[in-house]
Amino acid sequence: MRALLARDLMLAIRAGGGFGLGLAFFLIVTVLVPFGVGPQTDLLSRIAPGILWIGALLACLLSLDRILALDWEDGSLDLLATAPLPMEGIVSVKALAHWITTGLPLVLAAPVLGVLLSLPLPAYQWVVISLAVGTPALSVIGTFGAALTVGIKRGGLLMSLLVLPLYVPTLIFGAEVARRGAEGLTVQAPLLLLAGISFGVIALLPFASAAVLRINLR
Amino acid sequence: MMPDLGKYAFAVLSSYGVTIILLSVIVVISFWRARKVRAALDEIENRRGN
Amino acid sequence: MSLWEYANPVKFIRTTDKVLPWVWALTGICLVTGLVWGFFFTPDDFRQGSTVKIIYIHVPSALMAINAWLMMLVASLIWIVRRHHVSALAARAAAPVGAVMTMIALATGAFWGQPMWGTWWAWDPRLTSFLILFLFYLGYMALWEAIENDDTAADLTSILCLVGSVFAVLSRYAVNFWNQGLHQGATLSLDKEENISDVFWFPLLVCIAGFVLLFIALVFLRTQTEIRARRTRALLAREGQA
């Protein structure tokens, strides 16, 4: 299990796409928003938490097809399936690797990009906390979507269509934590709900992902 | 015969209109596809029967 | 004689062929009666004016939008547990009908909201959850279309339906939490006091019956089509091999 994680991480680093692309995309989205809505500082600082969340979500989404597609194409997924590791373990490790290469950098980059959007000062910690709590859910849900569409050629667009509605609850609670934090309100309720979604998803969804992957490998 | 819909005529009429159009579309598509598929299957089964 | 006999495709087609004309006839009677009754022979509401007439399509279509998903959920479960092909195909057949019902509910809601709330669209919990439901329908149908192998497609979509149902419910609560609504509460509560008055209630019931029957008729017809399409593909594949 640890070997698989190490292998996935190595591949992500060597191939260069893992850390870099997601972050670059996050940066681009954040830079584009002021061009779209105008440079007024007060407007930007009001919508900054939401933009950071949406940017992180899209960056996550774009890197999803890397989770399984490459292993599917070169056949290493078939090898993994015959390994003694249960399929649930494989998808969990894949999701974890995706989170380490995509989710974690996004969490760390968010405060830097917050400066660009003149994020209000009290919001920094809450944006980071909410992303740290929420991005694991994004990775796990995304792994489910990637497992669903892994057998389909050019399934990227379809996967977005399937995954984005599943992201709705996470996005709502995550952005709500960040927004309330920015306005100095209490964040306990949405933060707990967000954590609840993350833990629930991490505990249950790998079973669905594994079932789906088994069907696809049949 | 037409009831007096007052100032909301547009809302009411367009609601009914949209509904009737959408329902007709799904019904017509369903029937059209049913007929097409049935014809295709009949053709193959006849061919195999011979 | 058990219900599972209808899981045999031939038996299903034979039975539904017998039943379908009656269902269509009843659908026509209910829909025409209900809508004509509602449109021509009901009084205006004292507050909402004639817009109250929209209720005869808005409420039934919204009900069916949710019920169609529930029916797909049950059919998916039956497919996963008992592996009856008719069940999987029925779920596939129901999805576009459900999507159309969702569209009707959203569209009539917009037409109703415009004069009543002064806006076509508001990010109200109910409206938003219906929009999300619509996205789920789209994803479900797209996944069916994208996969070539019939059994794989049935398996994957049924799991998507299960997971999607959980997330649809989650979204419902999330959205409730996120914004307070303009939309009124449930129209059809069991509490008689809160209900709408009988003048509106009876034509509404007839309309709901009409929409339910229409859904059943369409699902029967479309399931037959899916069964035949699948058999066609199987025969063609066999010819290709020979």
TrEMBL record, chain A:
Domain of life: Bacteria
Recorded topology in the membrane: Multi-pass membrane protein
Alphabetical GO biological process terms: cytochrome c biosynthetic process; cytochrome complex assembly
GO MF entry, a single one: heme transmembrane transporter activity
Pfam families: CcmB (PF03379)
Family: Belongs to the CcmB/CycW/HelB family.
Free-text function comment from the UniProt entry: Required for the export of heme to the periplasm for the biogenesis of c-type cytochromes.
Protein name: Heme exporter protein B
Organism: Marivita cryptomonadis
Automatic annotation (TrEMBL), chain B:
Membrane topology recorded in Swiss-Prot or TrEMBL: Single-pass membrane protein
UniProt-listed InterPro entries: Haem_export_protD_CcmD (IPR007078)
One Pfam family per UniProt: CcmD
Protein's cellular compartments: Cell inner membrane
Domain of life: Bacteria
One GO cellular component term: plasma membrane
Keywords, ordered alphabetically: Cell inner membrane, Cell membrane, Cytochrome c-type biogenesis, Membrane, Transmembrane, Transmembrane helix, Transport
Membrane-spanning segments: 12-32
One GO term of the biological process aspect: cytochrome complex assembly
Chief localisation class: membrane
Family per similarity comment: Belongs to the CcmD/CycX/HelD family.
Function: Required for the export of heme to the periplasm for the biogenesis of c-type cytochromes.
Name of this protein: Heme exporter protein D
Gene that encodes the chain: ccmD
From TrEMBL, chain C:
GO terms, molecular function: heme binding; heme transmembrane transporter activity
Membrane topology: Multi-pass membrane protein
A Gene Ontology biological process term: cytochrome complex assembly
TM helices/strands, residue ranges: 21-42, 54-81, 93-112, 127-147, 159-179, 199-221
Annotated signal sequence range: none
Domain of life: Bacteria
Entry's Gene Ontology cellular component terms: plasma membrane
Domain Cytochrome c assembly protein: 16-183
Pfam families cross-referenced by the UniProt entry: Cytochrom_C_asm (PF01578)
Broad class of where this protein is predominantly found: membrane
InterPro entries: Cyt_c_assembly, Cyt_c_biogenesis_CcmC, Cyt_c_biogenesis_CcsA/CcmC
Record localization: Cell inner membrane; Membrane
Keywords, ordered alphabetically: Cell inner membrane, Cell membrane, Cytochrome c-type biogenesis, Membrane, Transmembrane, Transmembrane helix, Transport
Function: Required for the export of heme to the periplasm for the biogenesis of c-type cytochromes.
Family under the similarity heading: Belongs to the CcmC/CycZ/HelC family.
Name of protein: Heme exporter protein C
Protein's organism: Marivita cryptomonadis
